[in-house]
Amino acid sequence: MTRARAIAPLSFCKPMLQNPAFRTPMAIALGAILGALSRHFLSSWISHWVGSDLPIGTLLINLTGCFGMGLLATLFGQRVLGHAPELQLMLTTGFLGSYTTFSSYELDLARLAYQRELAADGLYWGASTLLGFGSLLLGVWVARAIAPPVTLD
Questions:
Q1: Is the pTM of this model over 0.90?
Q2: Are the C-beta atoms of 134 and 69 separated by less than 8 Å?
C-alpha cells in the first residue's frame, strides 16, 4: 500500500478540523480528559501523602484551579496568549472545569457535616472560599506581572 493510500482515509478530518462547530467541543473534551485525570491522580497522591481526615487533596486542587483560572483568564483577556478561542476553551472550560472539583468540595462539606465534624466543616468551607478567592487574585496579579496590560495611546 502506498503512503498516499494509507493517509487517504484520514482526509475526512481536515474539513472537520476547519469547522468551529467541531473544533470547539473537541477542544473542550480534550481539556476535560486531561483535567479530570490530573484531578484524580493529584488529589489521590496528595491525600495519601498528607494522610489527613480533612480533604486536603480537594482543597489544593481547588486552590491551584482558582489560581490557574485567574492566570489564564487574565492572559487570554489581555491577548497575551493570542486570540485562540479553542485553546482558551480547552484550558479554561475543559481542563480547569474538570480539574477543579467544586462538586467534590460540596460532597466533602456534606460528609463532614453528616459526621458532625462542624469545626472541620467550617474550617474547610472558610479555607476553600477565602483561599480560593485569594488564589484567583494571585493568578491575576502574576499574569499582570508577566504581561502588564497594554494601553493604546
A1: no
A2: no
Which residue, chain included where needed, has cell 489581555?
A: 78
Amino acid in position 58: T
Which cell numbers in the block locate residue 113? 457535616
For the record, the C-alpha cell of 102 comes out as: 467544586
Instruction: Name the H helices within the chain.
Output: 3-7, 13-17, 20-50, 56-77, 85-89, 97-99, 102-114, 118-126, 132-146
Q: Is the C-alpha dihedral spanning 31, 91, 137, 64 positive or negative?
A: positive
The CA distance from 11 to 33, in Å, is 25
How many CB atoms lie under 10 A from the CB of residue 120? 18
For 31-64, what is each residue's pLDDT tens digit?
Answer: 999 999 999 999 889 888 888 778 888 888 988 9
